[in-house]
Write a structure and sequence with these properties.
mainly alpha; 4 helices
């Protein structure tokens, strides 16, 4: 029964990670769709994207803690390594997102319109 409970807990945690990652992808898509719009819309989309990292981060951290507490095995080691890589990638995304928001705030303070690469190439 213990193994079945652990498997079900792992499945539930993975499901939370997947659901949170889908929300993050939706927010990222909205941010990308905001390219070329007003600076306030772009900043808002970037902020929403950054907010969406919270539930994903929480789900990944909970999965990581579960894996750390699990009985060691090759399977657990692989899962843990994968989860830690996802956490590392998410942390990089959050840093980039924060820098983008700072950039939009600076642009707003200077009253500069954002341009997309596509517009610059025309």
């Amino acid at each position: 029964m213990k193994g079945a409970t652990m498997n079900q807990n792992l499945i539930n945690l993975r499901q939370r990670v997947v659901e949170a990652s889908m929300e993050l992808i939706r927010a990222q898509r909205a941010y990308l769709d905001a390219a070329g719009k007003s600076e306030s819309e772009l900043k808002e989309a970037a902020e929403d994207y950054l907010k969406a990292t919270g539930p994903y981060d929480a789900a990944l951290q909970e999965l990581r803690q579960f894996l750390l507490a699990a009985e060691p095995s090759e399977f657990i080691a692989v899962e843990l390594e994968h989860t830690e890589r996802l956490i590392e990638a998410l942390n990089k995304e959050k840093r980039v997102g924060s820098k983008l928001i700072e950039h939009y705030v600076e642009m707003g303070a200077q009253n500069v319109k954002p341009t997309s690469r596509h517009n610059e190439e025309e």
